[in-house]
Amino acid sequence: MCGLVAIVARDEVFSDIYDALTILQHRGQDAAGIVTCENDRLNLRKENGLVRDVFQHRHFDMLKGTLGLGHVRYPTAGSASAAEAQPMYVNSPFGISLAHNGNLLNGPELLESFVQTDSRHINTDSDSELLLNVFADELQKGDRDKEPADQIFSAVRALHSRVNGAYAVVALITGFGIVGFRDPNGIRPLIYGKRGKGGAEEFMIASESVALSVLGFQPVSDVMPGEAVFIDTKGNVSVKQCFDQPRYTPCIFEYVYLARPDSVIDKVSVYKARLKMGEKLADKITRIYPDNDIDVVIPIPDTSCTAALPMAHRLGVKYREGLVKNRYIGRTFIMPGQEERNRSVRRKLSPIELEFRGKNVLLVDDSIVRGTTSKQIVQMARDSGAKKVYLASAAPPVKFPNVYGIDMPAASEFIAHDVNEGQVARYIGADWVIYQDLDDLIASASGINPEINGFDCSIFSGEYVTGALSEKYFQTLSDARVQLGPMKKTSQEKLLEIHNQD
Fold first, then answer.
1. Quick check: 181 and 170 in contact, CB under 8 A?
2. Could you give the angle at the alpha carbon of 281 between the alpha carbons of 277 and 284, nearest 5°?
3. Which of 79-83, 292-296, 307-311, 422-426 has the least mean pLDDT?
């Protein structure tokens, strides 16, 4: 996942783009970038680091212009080097800057066609650069006698036919305006809105609605699957569906973890969806453990707090925030390595011992992915004096690789890939572990937007909305993971550790 923003304004846009990126910082902590356009001259600054570290006061004067776009990066495909930071730029046609959230599935095939057929040079391992070159190539082939909006929509339509995967995109076309478009399944989110009235409207396209609302933009619409939105330099908006048979299947993990709770993704409130997750998980606990001895429900902050509150209410026990989060440590899930995640858990969370001492504690997390973080937190609870420690996951077991832009490329990394709940509990040291049922998770996000055909639940179900993938593809992902750094413990190794504890 990454965070995107693009703005067409009447005044300088740098400050608004900077603020929007800080609002979207939860979507990427690896790198940040902003490009602005002033009198057809592009001004670009991008580097590894958080938004506040990449941009200093002196950059306010460098990044002039009334339209621009920004990106916060969370690395999946490619490396975490500064060269991979976005936006990316190609000079022909017109000069295009592009930022991308998602992951392409046919990158090697696209790369081969660029080298052999299109005579284009690709300078990084980033699939975002591939996407930029596909868009540029199709725009170059277009009919220059058409209106700019029609040229862009034709290019997006052609891009959809060449590219397979998940992509939400914002692009700046020098001298023309900004464009946002979304893959035909709508896997990654994108929304646009406006600010002002009476011929003085300003427009923003962003990954999440919260970036719009905080900066005073009123949401107009989500960018629909397969759709493109073009906003020219004068603020004229054109919208067109660029795919013949789109399917509306957003990623359900946006509601579980990725998005902020104050966002509305595809007309579904993330906050309300998480409340429902908590209610449904509480009902499952009551069914399976009707005589449970839970004394207190404690969320593992922050994402699970919303689900934990209705859980406690439904179970009739106390809700306490017994783990205090250090706000100056980033999201551990999106840190680039397991060692860094492990070191960060103790720095990030500090227990309030009186909430644990002598109690049977139900810890609530949004999900259990690799299990190593959960293991440390369970031990933290025991060290703080808890009699029993239970762990509830607001999401089902994560068992399958994510191929749509989340850093989950190898099934062997997941604790639940080939073990049952009892074995997971033994590995992480909990008295029992309970997961959300997939049907209940889907129901938590359903019924609000009737246009949604379903959700991508591939990390839970192994069913991919873009179609089945070959074992060779997954093996390539796993091999690349080994090359990028030390492989995490496989679930077989974790099982061996479990058995050795007996």
1. no
2. 150
3. 79-83
Contact 204, 5 (CB under 8 A): yes
For residue 378, give both structure tokens: 């369970």
- Determine whether 2 is an active site residue: yes
In angstroms, rounded to a whole number, what is the distance separating the alpha carbons of residues 288 and 301?
A: 25
Active-site residue, from 2, 37, 242, 457: 2
- Give the C-alpha separation, 173 to 181, whole Å: 14
pLDDT tens-digit readout, 289-322: 999 999 999 999 999 999 999 999 999 999 999 9
Q: 16-29: string of b/e by CB count within 10 Å (b at 16+)?
A: bbbbbbbbbbbbbb
CA–CA separation, 3 and 73 (whole Å): 7
User: What's the structural domain count of the chain?
Assistant: 2
From the list 342, 390, 353, 380, the residue with the least C-alpha distance to 488 is 342
Q: What are the residues facing 5 on neighbouring strands? A: 70, 206
Domain boundary among the residues 247, 263, 293 is at 247
- pTM for the structure as a whole: 0.93
The residue segments making up the domain with residue 61 are: 3-247
